[in-house]
């Protein structure tokens, strides 16, 4: 391996910009020592740009590392006529930082939406249970408003599933009488429950 390339010291071209451009050419050819020089020269600036956008130190460190890896991988795409290496690195750093922020925001929105769906589902289940319990309590209250024979007939038919004939046999009452009691009992229940037809 060759000796590390000293940045802006004793390199042809005079200025730091030219030296960094030359370093980038070496990086494009896979020179790891050149990349080390590039890294030392640009990493603090890249991190600063990213931190201003992301505003979280740990995430900014991650993004800055990703940017430096991009510089290594994309070194051959750098064109000196389009601007300095620092400008090119700044553009990549800013783009990566914005992408991270957008990704974090999208993730937060997804989590909020999921939490809202879970909350709504839980609320709907609780509301349904409460409504069922209230309906059951109202039915019990309304059943208490029936006469004893009406309540017996309705209870046997609707809660035990007996037919009119089976209710008549269980209560030892003529079938037409049972039908009348059930009809009257159901009308009273409907009125008590506030059901409109």
TrEMBL record:
Domain RNA polymerase sigma-70 region, residue spans: 38-105
Residues covered by the RNA polymerase sigma factor 70 region 4 type domain: 137-189
Molecular function terms from GO: DNA binding; sigma factor activity
Family designation: Belongs to the sigma-70 factor family. ECF subfamily.
Lineage, broadest ranks: Bacteria, Bacillati, Actinomycetota, Actinomycetes, Kitasatosporales
GO biological process, one term: DNA-templated transcription initiation
Lineage top rank: taxon: Bacteria
NCBIfam families in alphabetical order: PRK09646.1, sigma70-ECF
Keywords in alphabetical order: Sigma factor, Transcription, Transcription regulation
Protein name: RNA polymerase sigma factor SigK
